Amino acid sequence: MGSSLTESEALLKLKSSFTKAGALNSWVNGSLPCQGEVGWDGLVCSNGLVTDIRLGGFGLSGKIDVDALLELSYLRSISIMSNNFSGPIPEFNRLGSLRAIYLSRNRFSGEIPSDYFANMGSLKKVYLSSNMFTGKIPSSLAQIPRLSELLLDNNQFSGTIPSIDQPTLAALDVENNNLEGEIPSSLTKFNASTFKGNGGLCGEPLGNECKVAAEQPAGSKNTNISKNMIIAIVVAAAVLLMIIVVTIVRSRKKKRDEFDVLEHEKRNSEEHVEVRVSQSGSSRKEANSIHKKGSSSSRRGSNHGKGNMAVDLVVVNNEKGVFGLSDLMRASAEVLGNGSSGSAYKAVMANGVAVVVKRMREMNALGRDQFDAEIRQLASLQHWNILPPLAYHFRKDEKLLVYEYIPKGSLLYLLHGDRGPSHAELNWPTRLKIVQGIAEGMGYLHTELAYSSIPHGNLKSSNILLSPDFDPLLIDYGFFPLINPLDAAQALFAFKAPEAAIFGLISPKCDVYSLGIVILEILTGKYPSQYLNSNKGGTDVVEWVNSAIADHRQSELFDPEIASSRNSIGEMKKLLHIGAACTESDPEQRLDMMEAIRRIEEVQVEGGQEDRTMNVVPSLRDGYEDSFPQITFEARNSYDGLGGLSRTRLESHSFVSQSSGRPSTDDNFVFAIP
Ligand SMILES: Nc1ncnc2c1ncn2[C@@H]1O[C@H](COP(=O)(O)OP(=O)(O)OP(=O)(O)O)[C@@H](O)[C@H]1O
């Protein structure tokens, strides 16, 4: 059928294929599906177009009109989890560009054709858990090049597990089916819980040996052995070849001049130094040193669009103007640091604009076009707590990302670095404001990048910059699809969540764990050992906080620099419990992002009331008997940030002693705040 429907017509057609669709009452003619706050429920949009359908738990049943879905050209994922759909698997395989299908917890049944996934080359996540699928696990799953999460548990799949050997596969669950035979060697990295509940399965993860060899007819064992030997020889040869190639490439690379600013470390950062970039594209063999002085504007505009991408910067956000590599090359540069995913340099261009250039080591997961699309998507995000990239440079073996330089630096630096004036300003209200800003930014990312299993992926205090007013700005978000899958665990902090570190299970809850670590870091003022790979140094903030909470020693945990703000202890404790709930080792028990955000938003309101209650008693001593209920009292205003006293006159508000009889100085008072 032709592509003739508008998005809203297509979605209404989809809705009409459902039999129970009461939860979709925002889907009506006359309104637009993607319109900020008032858009239709269950949709994620980008630039006014539907990218993801999220109808989990909407109580839906009936049919799913895939023809209607075909009209949504930008659709990347569909979730209909936890509904009442039944019958055979819908023909989502006609939507070849989907990245994720989430069908878990419905009543789908029957066999899935073995070639069902053959034309779904963009898929990354397949969730079919807790349905009633039967027959073999479709072998075409092995053809999805970048499959990363495959959940088939709690169905009735039978037969052997096909050899799914994509190195990208980070999460797998086939438990509670009727599978049999040997677990393919490519899947032995997963543990027993992945496979349990399948009587006939055997192999290393389950700790039971397969007896297949003994039952094989004579001769087949030899064939297997020789087959294995051939595979081993081929693999060894391939590894050897790779080592040789890598060695040659590395030694050549050393000789070539690259974005070589290392010398700057020895020099004065103010000095004007030459930054050289090797040229890619057609004349890549020769290093191209550009050090001719000239007007930076001479190249302006040349880097816009894809035309000059091979050798120049692609500006994806021109808020700071348009600039090219030549402008960076002539800039005075300074090394900022060398993180787990690359190194960062500050470059001040001739026009005075200061930027940070990040050289990303492990960002080779995508080809040029996909990389371009991903970065543009990240750059299109707009939120006051997000710092989007300005430009990128793409070469096969190196990527550069350019950001606006933020002078105040990172939260990491302010908390643990020098004790300059900005550090002194990190009082409690400022810290709470920072946490709330981080939460807002995370909420935004989890909505806008909801299709990603870890929308931020690298939240830690060095990736939180601070505006002059201490508003947090999140950076290095959304990198998960860009990073080489095998390096992701090393490069991204979200992989430190216990379930990711131990079982390779990644989900948005990994970001919640990272948020929890930042919260505990802000409250305790300690550098978390979780940031270190070596396990040496830092404080295991999760362990420390949990044991102090268990022993009712919470007050000892707070950074001495904020602990003196005694009338805010209630707020701090509240936030501490949120931090602890975000760092729960079991992801099922851990807060989810939206709940964490909601609770963070509430810290101040409830904590504030508590403060006022605590401070009202001393001033009641001055003759409350006469003036009650017209009482003047002093309350420490926890919002002014200075711990100062503010006089408030309580006139007509209700005032209740929590003990019976006359108010006394031992009482707690609860009263309404105007
Ligand atoms: N736009 C920026 N403005 C100011 N400082 C920045 C900016 N971007 C990064 N930085 C700082 O530069 C330093 C080095 O950053 P880099 O990203 O290389 O390391 P990292 O954040 O420690 O680790 P990772 O590579 O995992 O993100 C960090 O302290 C970071 O806070």
From TrEMBL:
Protein name per its UniProtKB record: Protein kinase domain-containing protein
Listed GO CC annotations: membrane
Bias kind Low complexity: ranges: 295-306
Main location: membrane
Record-annotated Protein kinase domain positions: 330-603
Region named Disordered: 265-306
Superkingdom field: Eukaryota
Record keywords: ATP-binding, Glycoprotein, Leucine-rich repeat, Membrane, Nucleotide-binding, Repeat, Signal, Transmembrane, Transmembrane helix
GO molecular function, one term: protein kinase activity
Pfam families linked: LRR_1, LRR_8, LRRNT_2, Pkinase
Organism: Lithocarpus litseifolius
Gene3D superfamilies: Phosphorylase Kinase, domain 1 (3.30.200.20), Ribonuclease Inhibitor (3.80.10.10), Transferase(Phosphotransferase) domain 1 (1.10.510.10)
Regions of compositional bias (Basic and acidic residues) in chain numbering: 265-275
Ranges in coiled-coil conformation: none
Compartments where found: Membrane
Binding site for ATP: K358
Regions that span the bilayer: 229-249
